[in-house]
């Protein structure tokens, strides 16, 4: 991954106008045409770069212990720790303020790593020195693996606030249990890619990465997604010249005896346990600013290795303000505008969206965009269950595409989407995560990232209106600000924008498996074009049919084109279109909206012949023009389905009719000219005609 990452740096960015871009960044990079590198196509893969290293493991807390933790609500964390950039040793305290639930509390349950029973004396573990609750020392702390329970000297009343300070020390484990590495990691930041001119940075970095289950590997906590702390403070004491990057605002730095310094960070926004972070190294600071419309000037605090590193990456780092301004115009103001955004460098071969301070290895275009868009999707609004991780990773991946649309060429944005579709279709599984104990499955690159992004793209297509689409994103952000959400919550918002139920869409694309393919045959007779579309699916046992609109682009012999959007309401559909000109070819989904594997449509010269013989009925329609009802004469003796198509070829009405009910209800149709066709139960065209709705 590092070879790919650093290979892209010689490429500048080509800026292009786009309807979804709000404004130009304050400082635009140099521009010239080029193609996307593989790393830019796969910025999200850098986010998920080391997922393959993660072991399959259960969520840390036992069911019984989690039930104990659910008896209170976390309000506040304060970490006051001693850390160095040269080891995984950690010591200090964590202050947890919690609100007791409806029943009195006689013990406080939390999570903290403990080496397995029988481990040697030198094995990494975290030891609890004492627990003080409401000023009184706990009479006893029981531990069973990561489950810790401190008895209270005096029970806490229902609905009361409890302040608990947990004093501990030890060495954080090293076992690749987080999504990328460990809860706390330490390694050399030397860049091994010296062959391509990249500079080296020969000192160590200690950094945290807690997603999904590894916060307890470096501080006592409650690892429950739906229980965000209302606020947090992170204090870290370290040896100079180290600096400490963390969440929120740096309140002050305090000199400490022994050539040390304490960094005091505070955040007053709700935060999920896994987004609390630290990074410790002798960093150099570089600050730039974003100026989103209607918002304050936002500092972007970058903790980089040194001046050589900054010189190497500065052009890419300076894209961040424009990204913030653009995303703010699309999804709502940057959620933490009153605090900051920033980056802390660590050699993690990817990135992690720690709230207001992303930990990142390098600054590829799409990696920076991906981690930044997480501040909206993942940090401000966090998935309420790992089953719904696509709400984090799918949307962050789509942020890469939005950034390319706004700041790059249409060809490169299209190339990204084409590659995203290719990767998504490599896995026939579901976006929904059934096994939330598997880190590898939660962060499956093809499903959670790329297929998730594809689902977001199809929601945009479904609404067919960017105003509605981005309004839905802003509504989602506002409605669940500082909280968590499920897929059903997002569905309700999109249903409100669409004005109709979308359960079928989410059943197909979120819970369903596989993808459709559309085999299209077509022919032209005079001013009429017939399309015969047969849908097949890759996983018929799980998702037997995908109901969807599909775009078809007709290219005429004179070089002009016409795109029509048609509804695939059943496995086999026949569409008849009125055209002006001779069609040379037909393309399925030419703008890559759908996750599908469709083959090139073929002209079938027999198609019209089989429809235009004795079985094809010219319909007598009356009254014509009509208002409320359209009557049909000379119906066939068998059951048929009537479909009305508007001038674009879109099916706008479907109704079963027969000799006992020879009329079509046209009250819901807008005034205009329509094409009416009768289809047999097998989808064959058996009659057609035109009518006008007044």
From TrEMBL:
The coenzyme or cofactor needed here is: Zn(2+)
Q: What is one GO biological process annotated to this record?
A: peptide catabolic process
Family, as annotated = Belongs to the peptidase M1 family.
Q: Which PANTHER family match?
A: PROTEASE M1 ZINC METALLOPROTEASE (PTHR11533), PUROMYCIN-SENSITIVE AMINOPEPTIDASE-RELATED (PTHR11533:SF174)
Molecular function (GO) terms for this protein are: alanyl aminopeptidase activity; metalloaminopeptidase activity; peptide binding; zinc ion binding
Where is each Peptidase M1 membrane alanine aminopeptidase domain found?
365-509
* UniProt KW keywords: Aminopeptidase, Hydrolase, Metal-binding, Metalloprotease, Protease, Signal, Zinc
Quote the catalytic activity from the record: Release of an N-terminal amino acid, Xaa-|-Yaa- from a peptide, amide or arylamide. Xaa is preferably Ala, but may be most amino acids including Pro (slow action). When a terminal hydrophobic residue is followed by a prolyl residue, the two may be released as an intact Xaa-Pro dipeptide
E.C. number: 3.4.11.2
Q: State the InterPro entries in the record.
A: Aminopeptidase_N-like_N_sf (IPR042097), Peptidase_M1 (IPR001930), Peptidase_M1_aminopeptidases (IPR050344), Peptidase_M1_dom (IPR014782), Peptidase_M4/M1_CTD_sf (IPR027268)
Which positions make up the signal peptide? 1-22
Task: Provide the protein name.
Answer: Aminopeptidase N
Q: Which domain of life, per UniProt?
A: Bacteria
The cellular component terms of Gene Ontology attached to this UniProt record, alphabetical and capped at eight, are: cytoplasm; extracellular space; membrane
